[in-house]
C-alpha cells in the first residue's frame, strides 16, 4: 500500500523528467483506493507558448514515466490509465492526467540508471568521439520514432531553420513576456534554484542575463528587429553546429500527449547512454512551416507528427537539476 510518506520520494524521482521551460507541472496525489493520481497544475501552463496544453500533457507524461520507473525500482508493477482526453478537473486548478494502480512485480528499468545523468545543455558541445555519430545513426535506425540528422551540411540546414523559426516566435511580445516570466536571470530570484531557466541552465553570466531580460521584456527587441539585429540576438547556429547530430523525435498523430511524453522521456534516457546531453529545438515542431520542411526532408511517416528536435553531444560539464522540493509535488485529496 502506497501512503504519502512513500509517495513523496517517488514523486521526487518522477520529477527528474524534463518539462517545458522547466515548469514542472506534474503533481501527485493518492485516491481513496490507494491509487496514484498524476495531475497537471494549471497555474504552470504556458498560455501563449502552449495554448492547447499539449506541452503540459507531454510534461506530465514524462513525469508519469518517471513514476512508473520509480515504482519498478522498488519491485512494484504499475497499471496506467490515461485520462488526458477527458479534460477532467480533479479540483479547481488541477487537471487529471493519469491514474496509476501499483501492483504485481516489476523488474527495474535499464533506463532508470540514467535519470540522474540526463540534463539539458544549452551551450557549445564538446567534440564527440569519431564513432559516436555512426553509433547514434545505427541506434536511430532501429527505432520507428526517431530520425537521425548528421553531417555538417545537414546540421547547417537545421541550424538555419531553427534560427528562422525562433525569430518568428520571438517577434511576438506576449511570447517573450511569458518566456521571461520563467527565466531566472538573477541569483536573487526566489525560485532561482527551484524551477524555470536560470543563468546556469541558460549558460549566461549575470551581465548577459540582465541584458537579455531587459531586451526581451521591453520594446527594445522590436527596435533591434527593425535594425536587423534581432536575428543575431536569438541565433543559436554557432552552438548548434557543435552538436554530434540532431535527433528528430516523432510519434503517431493521434497519440495522447501523456503517452507521447512517456515515450519522449524514454527516448532521451536512451541516448543519454551514449554519454550525450540534449538541447531541444521545440520551435521546429511548434512552427508548422518548419515542421513540414523537416517532415519532407527526412521523410517522416505521414501518420506521425514531429514532437521535438534535439541537438545532442557531449557536454563539457554536468549541470545539476533545478527542481521543486518533493513535498510540494504531493497533494492531499480534496475534502
TrEMBL record:
It comes from the Bacteria. SUPFAM superfamilies: FMN-dependent nitroreductase-like. InterPro entries: Nitroreductase-like (IPR000415). This is Uncharacterized protein.
Amino acid at each position: 500500500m502506497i501512503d504519502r510518506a512513500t509517495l513523496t520520494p517517488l514523486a521526487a524521482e518522477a520529477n527528474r523528467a524534463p518539462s517545458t521551460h522547466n515548469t514542472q507541472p506534474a503533481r501527485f496525489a493518492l485516491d481513496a483506493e490507494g491509487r496514484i493520481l498524476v495531475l497537471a497544475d494549471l497555474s504552470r501552463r504556458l498560455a501563449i507558448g502552449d495554448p492547447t496544453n499539449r506541452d503540459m500533457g507531454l510534461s506530465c507524461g514524462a513525469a508519469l514515466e518517471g513514476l512508473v520507473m520509480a515504482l519498478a525500482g522498488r519491485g512494484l508493477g504499475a497499471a496506467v490509465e490515461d485520462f488526458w482526453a477527458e479534460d477532467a478537473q480533479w479540483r479547481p486548478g488541477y487537471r487529471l492526467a493519469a491514474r496509476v494502480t501499483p501492483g504485481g512485480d516489476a523488474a527495474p528499468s535499464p533506463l532508470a540508471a540514467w535519470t540522474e545523468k540526463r540534463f539539458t545543455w544549452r551551450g557549445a558541445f564538446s567534440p564527440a568521439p569519431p564513432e559516436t555519430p555512426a553509433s547514434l545513426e545505427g541506434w536511430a535506425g532501429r527505432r520507428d520514432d526517431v530520425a537521425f540528422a548528421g553531417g555538417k551540411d545537414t546540421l547547417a540546414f537545421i541550424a538555419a531553420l531553427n534560427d528562422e523559426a525562433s525569430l518568428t516566435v520571438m517577434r511576438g511580445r506576449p511570447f517573450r513576456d511569458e518566456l521571461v516570466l520563467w527565466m531566472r536571470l538573477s541569483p536573487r530570484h526566489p525560485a532561482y534554484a527551484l524551477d524555470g531557466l536560470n543563468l546556469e541552465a541558460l549558460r549566461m553570466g549575470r551581465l548577459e542575463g540582465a541584458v537579455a531580460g531587459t531586451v526581451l521584456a521591453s520594446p527594445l527587441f522590436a527596435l533591434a528587429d527593425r535594425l536587423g539585429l534581432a536575428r543575431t540576438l536569438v541565433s543559436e547556429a554557432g552552438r548548434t553546429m557543435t552538436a554530434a547530430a540532431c535527433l528528430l523525435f516523432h510519434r503517431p498523430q493521434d497519440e495522447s500527449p501523456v503517452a507521447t511524453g512517456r515515450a519522449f522521456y524514454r527516448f532521451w534516457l536512451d541516448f543519454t547512454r551514449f554519454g550525450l546531453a540534449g538541447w531541444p529545438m521545440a520551435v521546429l515542431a511548434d512552427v508548422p512551416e518548419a515542421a513540414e520542411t523537416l517532415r519532407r526532408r527526412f521523410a517522416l511517416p505521414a501518420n506521425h507528427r514531429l514532437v521535438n528536435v534535439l541537438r545532442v553531444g557531449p557536454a563539457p560539464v554536468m549541470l545539476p537539476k533545478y527542481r521543486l522540493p518533493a513535498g510540494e509535488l504531493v497533494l492531499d485529496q480534496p475534502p
